[in-house]
């Protein structure tokens, strides 16, 4: 069983319009609402791959109810802590020429009692799961060390923790030694302080990070695939060319693929292939955090893993 953590979920509201223009009013009947937040994107992709998953985090207000219902509709098990404030919405306005504008609400503040309640629930859920995936930003009130503390609790119970975060929460989390961490290039630069302009610098930065007690480090490189380090060996993940429609959420989909592969005890190369295939399959869809299973299988066959050392 895989547990996904979404501390700051959202309703993602996407509006498609002809052309974004300053100071104008736009009308559209081409809009979609989806349940989102990085952890919920991971959850949806794990579900598509038919692996058992349970989602947790914080939900509040009528937006929280909307997400709760949405998860029930797609048959995803979940146990969220109900909070006093309203769960956020994130808005994307996409014009037909492909340009995009996003408004991300700050989201609710979480009280100390709600955090304690969540940590109690987390410890209870830890007993039932093997892998934990924590993704994304944290809402106000939640301490920056939360992922670090959750990793430490998971490790005490011999559970594998996958971390996909950024900034200080990622830095703290890394100190606790998660099983797998997946920064993208920008996050890796921020973490290591190494400016990455060449392959050599990239390898140095990934290796630098993997020196800590982290089993697997993967740096995702968008359309350029990924690079991974395990046991001091460096692997390059070469992906096929595709026509990308919307690559947002590809990192989340990659995490889902990794979690599924680890849950099935697949070897490292297969894990890297499934993860990268999920990321690429997501980029082919217009909806964020969505993959077509047949595309994942097809893409996997066209991914090459090259051992560099
Ligand atoms: P996000 O934060 O939006 O989830 P990310 O920055 O964490 O994304 P990326 O590096 O963009 O993650 O993507 C993860 C993986 O998805 C890549 O390693 C690659 O396999 C696949 N991918 C992403 N973008 C593309 C693309 N344009 N074409 C093909 N594959 C892609």
Short description:
The chain is α/β, with parallel strands linked by helices. It has helices spanning about 40-50, 60-75, 110-125, 145-155, 165-175, 185-190, 200-210, 250-265, 270-285, 295-300; strands at about 1-5, 10-15, 30-35, 55-60, 75-85, 90-95, 100-105, 130-135, 160-165, 180, 215-220, 225-230, 235-240, 305. Helix 1 (about 40-50) packs across helix 8 (about 250-265).
Q: What would you note in describing this structure?
A:
The protein is α/β, with parallel strands linked by helices and 309 residues long. The protein has one domain: Ribokinase (UDP-N-acetylmuramoyl-L-alanine:D-glutamate ligase, 3-Layer(aba) Sandwich). It is built from ten helices and 14 strands. Helix 4 (146-156) packs parallel to helix 5 (167-175) and helix 6 packs across helix 7. The chain binds adenosine-5'-triphosphate. Residues 184, 220-223, 225-226, 239, 242, 244, 247-252, 254, 276, 279-280, 283 line the site of adenosine-5'-triphosphate. Belongs to the carbohydrate kinase PfkB family. LacC subfamily. Belongs to the carbohydrate kinase pfkB family. Residues 11-289 form the Carbohydrate kinase PfkB domain. Its EC number is 2.7.1.144.
